[in-house]
Amino acid sequence: MLIFNTLFGMKKISVLFLLLLFVLVSNSSIFKKEWVITKKENIILFTRPENYTSSPSPTLEIINEILEESIYCVNEINKELKVNYTAKVKIYLYNFDEAKEQIGTNGGGGAIPSKRSIYYTYFEIPRINIERNRTFRIGLHEFVHIISFNEIGDSKTLLFTEGYANAISGTYSAKEIEDKYYYMPILDFINAENLQKPTDLLNAQKIIEGKFYPQSGFFLQWLFKIYGVDKVNKLFVLKRDGFEKEFEKVTGDTFGNMEEKYLSYCKSFFKE
Asked: Which of 42, 110, 142, 204 has the most crowded Cβ, counting Cβ within 10 A?
């Protein structure tokens, strides 16, 4: 009787196991592959498989284009910031119809520099970067955040955090024109009326985003030109408190004198 009960119990467990397995297999979403992982050099790209959502996922051809674009971005940033970033970058591309829920926006994305990761929306139509005369699906901005953080240091001011990214990309935001996406040159957002002083840019919380972001990039481009990348990289990690004094130690120029030169440059520039 004991043997019979044991065998009966084992059969009962087997039947329950088969039923559970049937339910799991029937529910295909449990076994749904979440990511297609593709690698090239130091780029690891995560994209959604075909038919993952209602919005299209990248094809193999587009995946290869994005990998090449990403390598281009890393190389360009290394060259322009005079650094040598060789670590891996992970890129997670979310389909358009899921991006807002997953990463908070379907108009772009963001980066977590400490994790060397980018989280971005996949756009079927690549955006045109007029400054660089080429198209991008991700662009340089988020790569700048990762490379500057890991190669230069942790920026203590929003001016340098975002200013670097906008200066290197040469663009701010994007808008649709004639059914094509364009990254707009930062100069399209700046004029003599909304011009901000460097002191104001350091106090970024007092300036609305639409004015601050393009001007931070424009100002950093000017700093690179006047003082050189090596010195400006040293400014990148300075705290807001005492920035003006440290600026003079790094550049040999007073902050006030720099501000006058910048405003004078802007006045002549925007008159042309």
From this structure: 142
The helix (H) or strand (E) run that includes residue 177 is: strand 171-177
Nearest to 111 by CA among 85, 139, 153: 139
**Can you give the pLDDT at residue 2?**
44
DSSP state of 54: S
* Pair 70, 43: CB distance under 8 Å: yes
Instruction: Give 140: exposed, middle or buried? Use CB within 10 Å, 0-12, 13-18, 19+.
Output: buried
pLDDT, one tens digit per residue, over 207-216 is 888 889 899 9
Domains of the chain, residue spans: 33-151, 157-272
Torsion sign over Cα 93, 97, 103, 104: positive
CATH code for the part of the protein at 33-151: 3.40.30
Determine the average pLDDT of the residues in 34-53: 98
- pLDDT tens-digit readout, 76-107: 999 999 999 999 999 999 999 999 999 999 98
Residue at token pair 């045109």: 128
With a CB cutoff of 8 Å and minimum separation 6, the contacts of 226 are 258, 261
Per-residue DSSP letter, 178: T
DSSP 52: S
44 φψ region: left (φ > 0), alpha (ψ -120 to 50), beta (else)? beta
Tell me the per-residue pLDDT of 208-250, one tens digit each, with 9 for 90 and over: 888 898 999 999 999 999 999 999 999 999 999 999 999 999 9
